[in-house]
Specification:
single chain; mainly beta
């Protein structure tokens, strides 16, 4: 359902309404980061049911720092 680098929207929790990038996957958890509140070194483990996928995918190899991740997420069109 989710893949690495995919941009997701949080639909539940204190971070509801925010965009994040999937930086890790496990069986029952998706690890997300945005470079500001959640850093690449300390991603948030989130229940996949609380996330909504988008069609946007970011190449994680081009995102080597929190700053670059932050720029990538904030430059997304909010449509």
């Amino acid at each position: 359902m989710f893949k690495l680098g995919q941009v997701v929207w949080s639909s539940r929790g204190h971070d509801q309404g925010s965009f994040y990038v999937v930086v890790g996957l496990e069986q029952a958890r998706v690890y997300i980061a945005d470079g500001k509140r959640r850093k690449l070194q300390a991603p948030k483990a989130k229940n996949p049911l609380h996330l909504r996928p988008t069609n946007t995918v970011i190449d994680l190899s081009s995102v080597s720092s929190d700053r670059r991740l932050r720029i990538a997420v904030t430059s997304l069109p909010t449509g």
